[in-house]
Automatic annotation (TrEMBL):
Entry keyword annotation includes Mitochondrion: no
Keyword tags: Disulfide bond, Electron transport, Redox-active center, Transit peptide, Transport
InterPro entries the UniProt entry points to: Thioredoxin, Thioredoxin-like_sf, Thioredoxin_CS, Thioredoxin_domain
Keyword Cell inner membrane: no
Protein's name according to its UniProt entry: Thioredoxin-1
GO cellular component: cytoplasm
Pfam family of the protein (one): Thioredoxin
Organism for this UniProt entry: Zostera marina (Eelgrass)
Lineage, uppermost ranks: Eukaryota, Viridiplantae, Streptophyta, Embryophyta, Tracheophyta
Domain Thioredoxin: 1-93
One Gene Ontology term of the molecular function aspect: protein-disulfide reductase activity
Disulfide-bond pairs as recorded: 18-21
Length: 93
């Protein structure tokens, strides 16, 4: 879905035991609604998909990767608040 998307895709690398991942969950939900039609938001559980996390050199979670046309164009590590996350996304749109 990420590689074939015609819109930009945000992928959050997370795990259920990660406190900061739980903190950013509502922020990702708000951002998903805010950028409807411009950005797809997805989550990838690093415990369930360790090979993909390794492929993208995920060393800390939460990590957010942004893909455009199937290519990773940027990333950010940590639990961002809504203002910082939207600033990050707006810079890439």
């Amino acid at each position: 879905m990420v590689m074939e998307s015609d819109t930009m895709v945000l992928v959050e690398f997370w795990a259920p035991w990660c406190g900061p991942c739980r903190m950013i969950l509502p922020v990702i939900g708000e951002v998903s609604k805010l950028y409807t039609g411009k950005l797809k938001c997805m989550k990838l559980n690093t415990d369930d998909c360790p090979d993909i996390a390794t492929q993208y050199a995920i060393r800390s979670i939460p990590t957010i990767l942004i893909f455009k046309n199937g290519e990773k164009i940027d990333s950010v590590v940590g639990a961002l608040d809504k203002e910082k996350l939207t600033t990050f996304i707006d810079r890439l749109l």
